[in-house]
Amino acid sequence: DGGITQSPKYLFRKEGQNVTLSCEQNLNHDAMYWYRQDPGQGLRLIYYSQIVNDFQKGDIAEGYSVSREKKESFPLTVTSAQKNPTAFYLCASSTTGTGGRGYTFGSGTRLTVV
Amino acid sequence: AQTVTQSQPEMSVQEAETVTLSCTYDTSENNYYLFWYKQPPSRQMILVIRQEAYKQQNATENRFSVNFQKAAKSFSLKISDSQLGDTAMYFCAFMGDDKIIFGKGTRLHILP
Fold it and tell me: How far apart are CA B60 and CA B67, in angstroms?
């Protein structure tokens, strides 16, 4: 079955460490997205990519980095510059140019700073 | 910039009742898409219903329907015959060109 897979489900980071969250899709979707979810804040866009080797900053990109070397993969690195990284992170994908069918979401990664 | 506002942070209704969740948005675009997503306690995001702005007819999916008022920039979700499994966080969302903007959500509790 086609879908989008995020790993790990839970991740613990020590202060000062970089960590990478994985997002893989086999839906042949062109576009991929990373959102951060905090209580009472909804989903806020971190980065998105509509094509391989290209990506754009979202509303809260500071302290994060991404790469898009393959169509299927869009990993997110939370760097030590992100001062408050504890949150729930959601990856999503979609087709482009097909009239707003919405996203397919992964099941999320819960990141906790210890 | 587009914004999405959900004015009800939390709601509770009895099972089998009808409930309406409110959403307003702001945009200068004429062609766009609106969505309602459901996030149950599992935290998996599920698309509930989708509306294309150029269609006047309100979208319906089984017990879920919307009231889309383009001039007022309003997009409310009605859940009929509510069930315990409808308990979740509901997000209203707007898509213009290339990305979706989400509201802050309404936490809905269906009471037995």
Answer: 10
User: What is the spatial distance between Cα B95 and Cα B36, in angstroms, rounded to a whole number?
Assistant: 11
DSSP secondary structure code for residue A80 in this structure:
T
What's the pLDDT score for residue B96? 86
| Strand A87-94 to A31-38 pairing | antiparallel
pLDDT at A96: 74
Query: Which mean pLDDT values do the consecutive 10-residue runs of chain A (114 residues) have?
Result: 90 91 96 94 94 95 97 96 93 79 92 91
Neighbours of B88 (CB within 10 A): 22
Structure tokens at B103: 């509201």
Sign of CA dihedral B97, B98, B103, B108: positive
Helix (H, G, I), strand (E, B) or coil at B14: strand
| Inter-chain touch A40–B98, beta carbons under 8 Å | no
Q: Which amino acid is at B109?
A: H
Which residues are within 8 A (CB) of A1 and not within 5 positions of it... i.e. 6 or more apart?
none
d(CA A101, nearest CA chain B) in Å: 8
B20-74 pLDDT, tens per residue?
999 999 999 888 999 999 999 999 999 999 999 998 899 999 999 999 999 999 9
A60/B contact by beta carbon, under 8 A: no
Q: Do A102 and B101 touch (CB under 8 A)?
A: no
The answer to whether B109 touches B87, Cβ cutoff 8 Å, is: yes
